[in-house]
Specification:
single chain; mainly alpha; about 50% helix; flat
């Protein structure tokens, strides 16, 4: 599919989604927060949205950090 085809598809999808009435908010403004003690053996910390955990395995994330 060409770029123009993708653009047309995205615009059609946007127009469709704008017409949908949702019962609840799709995005929430209250984050999940947790307190974790980090020891001296911790080498790095990954701060990311939950979408990252849906699409990347932990082993891939670690190898990305060290490359």
């Amino acid at each position: 599919m060409s770029f123009l085809g993708y653009l047309t598809l995205l615009m059609s999808l946007k127009l469709f989604l704008c017409r949908i009435k949702f019962k609840e908010d799709i995005l929430i403004s209250s984050p999940d927060v947790s307190l974790v003690e980090l020891g001296p053996d911790v080498e790095f910390l990954i701060l990311a949205t939950d979408g990252l955990w849906d699409y990347m395995k932990r082993s891939i994330q670690v190898s990305f950090i060290f490359t």
